[in-house]
Amino acid sequence: MAPGGCLLLALLLLAGTAQGQHWSHGWYPGGKRDLSAPQAIPAWSPWLVPSRGRKSRYDPPAKSKASRLKVPPPVDPAELYVVTERYRQHRLVLSALRSIFRSEVVQRKREAQRDAEDSAALSEEHRLLMAWNDAENARQRARREERIR
Q1: Which among 32, 61, 97, 100 could bridge 20 via Cys, Cβ 3.0 to 4.6 Å?
Q2: Domain of 132?
Q3: For residues 30 and 22, is the Cβ–Cβ distance under 8 A?
Q4: Nearest residue to 36 via CA among 24, 48, 20, 47
């Protein structure tokens, strides 16, 4: 084997065992990077503020757009009528639903107040019945004690 062939064979064997990855971007030559090395931080990351921002409303327009006139899109009268009519109906339906909901809320509130008043009356009646029960129990106890004596 020729000395150049041995050299080529040695290079092929060494290239196969290299710990790297080849990156090539377009016509520009890439390079090898070590896969075990820590990855570099990308050019833009969340903690870095981008150097280019959006134009503010006070910045002048670009030269290519300086002579451009902004014209609103044309409006079809028939379509506008249909849309406004549907929107009017939509508002009517929503206002009806809101009034129904309001009346239900007021009715529930009144029922809760009535229940609270009824519960006050019921608790008073319960207290009177318990007092009568205690008095009756005391009377029966006294009667039994008289029998035993």
Answers
A1: 32
A2: 75-148
A3: yes
A4: 20
Work out the mean pLDDT of the chain and round it to a whole number. Answer: 79
> For residue range 85-130, what is the model confidence (pLDDT) as tens digits?
999 999 999 999 999 999 999 999 999 988 888 888 888 999 999 9
CA distances, 137 to each of 124, 131, 146, 148 (Å): 20, 10, 14, 17
Identify the bridge partners of residue 20 per DSSP, sorted by sequence position: 34
Q: Is residue 67 part of a domain?
A: no
Q: Examine residue 33 and state whether it is found in any structural domain, yes or no.
A: no
d(CA 115, CA 107): 12
**How far, in Å, CA of 41 to CA of 48, rounded?**
11
3-state secondary structure of 51: coil
Other beta carbons within 10 Å of 20: 13
**Could you give the residue ranges of the DSSP H alpha helices within the chain?**
3-16, 77-148
* Token pair for 35: 């896969």
Determine, yes or no, domain membership for 131: yes
Buried-exposed string 92-125: b where 16+ CB fall within 10 A, e elsewhere: eeeeeeeeeeeeeeeeeeeeeeeeeeeeeeeeee
The token duo for 122 is 């019921």
Provide the number of structural domains found in the chain: 1
